[in-house]
């Protein structure tokens, strides 16, 4: 799970695992200071999966590059334990209507160097905060995000809507699981 601070990464993890985490920040302060892996049961197909919650990419105390390096180091350690990355869900607040120089999507440009160009089709863009906008506004923003993604990668974007529920989290995970393939590239291993 990747995205800006406040994009809903920890909340997504809470719904997916069914575990309430008092460290999840619902105010102005960021709460996830370092990457963490959480194993959870896959309710639809049995077995288990590991979800990784990562720090926000707009950390006021570290540059985005420093945060990305920390994430890459964490993924490298997981890889040594035979836990391989199969997909990335990049969460973005659908309520963020403007793309500015401070736009959290600028970090998408770093993903090919983090995971390798071959991983780009395995990245889904998840939109959050649907309750904060009208459906029309959300859909307009979603279309803009898809255009931005295509310009960046020349790939079609897998868009997912997170609706703050267990079912929504697992629908997204299931959709991404269908595209499952190991994608840790030589760039980070």
Automatic annotation (TrEMBL):
Q: Name one GO molecular function term.
A: GTP binding
Q: Which organism is it from?
A: Athelia psychrophila
Report domain G positions: 1-70
Can you name this protein? G domain-containing protein
Name a Pfam family for this protein: MMR_HSR1
CDD domains, alphabetized: Ras_like_GTPase
